[in-house]
UniProtKB/TrEMBL annotation:
Family: Belongs to the FAD-binding oxidoreductase/transferase type 4 family.
UniProt cross-references to InterPro entries, sorted A to Z: FAD-bd_oxidored_4_C, FAD-bd_PCMH, FAD-bd_PCMH-like_sf, FAD-bd_PCMH_sub2, FAD-linked_Oxase-like_C, FAD-oxidored/transferase_4, Oxid_FAD_bind_N, Vanillyl_alc_oxidase_C-sub2
Organism: Isoalcanivorax pacificus W11-5
Family matches, as Gene3D superfamilies: 3.30.465.10, 3.30.70.2190, 3.30.70.2740, Vanillyl-alcohol Oxidase, Chain A, domain 4
Enzyme Commission number(s) from the entry: 1.1.99.39
Cytoplasm is among the record's keywords: no
Protein name in UniProt: D-2-hydroxyglutarate dehydrogenase
GO biological process, one term: respiratory electron transport chain
PANTHER family in UniProt: D-2-HYDROXYGLUTARATE DEHYDROGENASE, MITOCHONDRIAL
Catalytic reaction(s) noted: (R)-2-hydroxyglutarate + A = 2-oxoglutarate + AH2
Transmembrane segments: none
Subunit structure: Homodimer.
Length: 462
């Protein structure tokens, strides 16, 4: 079906101003943050109601049109890329907070609500939405649900999955399902809500979500510590977790630090180290701060920490967080090839040593930048493109790296995608984290909810 024919199919439903075919709109809505596939959607659709989403799906089924969901387009696995003439369904206009209940501490939102918008709304109610990451200012709740987004607070608060108490979804058949209805306790059989969380739009579209909120953390403090080696990073984590309930434990390499410093963020202290840890905790009393300093001094005595600094004000806390939060921004001009991998926390040191050894041995001319949410076993391996190497050759060479890395992931019973989804970039490697039997059951689930295969085809599964 031609681009014009696909657009004409939906135009009577949405009108010209919500059925877009111009080149700028197709470029804007047809991509995410990956740079491998060029966007080539047939049309961009902007529904405003649940009923319109249902009608879009039913028309697509009738005329065999593939649909690709589009949220904040901040994904890193090409899960929202429309590269083959699909119709993009963008949820930018379904962006309202629909209801709030202070007793349930729950808010119901449409999928186009931006993560930061939800965080600010929760704050206005004296509450807290804890799922947080660098793209919070542009990512949307629907996309977060589709990839089960994590971020910097997982060690304390968990993933997106842990905060979704209800969903309304339009399946690949066009049926509207209400899943769990906001209940905390519900023991009535299969919980399809959890099938849709992390399904990357391959089963249907989330059109409403009920999200629980938490109490606001108080008097947060941050420590940034210089650490001589990766095993010492884990010793520091263990020492602090024995004494303090951490809200975050992040790590980054000296190479990551150098890129951030080059973008104007001040160095936290003069001493240089191969690795750095960033710890956050609630300093609810003077005793809590004293306890943190006692653990810090113990780590120094053990040789696990070479230097460190603790925030003394909100301004300094925010400045220290910049060391971690601006890494992705600072390395972006170098066209990083990203791997988002995880293993059990106890296996992290041996795993990182093995992966780093393979990459450094095979590609000594590539700069390797490590950072991540080490407190939950999630590491981001970033390989930076040399300036004189063509992008196509760089990505081709990195594909070999991925195979070697994922073979190690498989040996450690880890995940090839900790929080960014599978999309198209990780799809060829799914077997490193999922058995053939599991993949077979996943295909069967997909066929049940999307029998005609129109929902985000080519993503997650072939």
């Amino acid at each position: 079906m031609s681009q014009t024919a696909v657009a004409d199919l939906f135009r009577p439903l949405l009108g010209d101003n919500r059925c877009l075919t111009d080149a700028d709109s197709c470029q804007r809505y047809g991509v995410d943050w990956t740079k491998v596939w060029a966007p080539a959607p047939a049309v961009v659709l902007l529904p405003e109601t649940v009923e319109e989403v249902q009608q879009i799906v039913r028309l697509a089924n009738e005329h065999h049109v593939a649909l690709v969901p589009s949220g904040g387009r901040t994904g890193l696995s090409a899960g929202a890329v429309a590269a083959s003439g699909e119709a993009v369904v963008a949820f930018d206009r379904m962006n309202k907070v629909l209801a709030f209940d202070p007793y349930d501490r729950a808010v119901t939102v449409q999928p186009g609500v931006v993560t930061q918008q939800l965080q600010e709304y929760a704050e206005q109610q004296g509450l807290f939405y804890p799922v947080d990451f660098a793209s919070a200012g542009s990512s949307q709740i629907g996309g977060n649900i589709g990839t089960n987004a994590g971020g910097i607070k997982v060690i304390r608060y968990g993933m997106t999955r842990d905060w979704i108490t209800g969903l309304r979804v339009v399946t690949g058949k066009g049926d509207l399902l209400e899943l769990n209805k906001g209940l905390i306790k519900n023991a009535t059989g299969y919980d399809f809500r959890h099938l849709f969380i992390g399904s990357e739009g391959t089963l249907g579209f989330v059109v409403e979500a009920t999200v629980k909120l938490a109490r606001q953390p108080k008097d947060l403090a941050v420590l940034v510590l210089g650490v001589p080696g990766f095993s010492e990073v884990m010793n520091v984590l263990h020492a602090f977790q024995q004494q303090i309930d951490l809200t975050a434990f992040e790590f980054f390499s000296d190479k990551a630090m150098r890129h951030v410093l080059a973008h104007g963020v001040p160095r936290p202290f003069d001493t240089e180290a191969p690795f750095y840890c960033l710890l956050e905790f609630e300093q609810l009393s003077e005793a809590a701060g004293d306890q943190a300093m006692a653990v810090f001094e113990h780590c120094v005595e053990q040789g696990w920490v070479v230097d460190g600094v603790m925030s003394q004000s909100l301004t300094q806390l925010e400045q220290l967080w910049q060391l971690r939060e601006r890494i992705s921004e600072s390395i972006a001009p170098h066209t990083p090839y990203k791997n988002d991998i995880s293993v059990m926390v106890s296996k992290v040191p041996a795993f990182v040593q093995e992966v780093d050894g393979v990459v450094q041995r095979e590609y000594p001319d590539f700069e390797i930048v490590w950072f991540g949410h080490i407190g939950d076993g999630n590491m981001h391996l970033n390989i930076l493109k040399p300036a004189d190497l063509p992008k196509e050759e760089f990505f081709s060479r990195c594909n070999n790296v991925s195979k070697w890395v994922f073979e190690i992931v498989q040996q450690y019973n880890g995940s090839i995608s900790a929080e960014h989804g599978v999309g198209m970039t990780k799809k060829p490697y799914l077997q490193y984290s999922r058995s053939p039997e599991e993949i077979g059951y996943m295909r069967a689930v997909k066929a049940l909810f999307d029998p005609n295969g129109i929902m985000n085809p080519g993503k997650l599964l072939d």
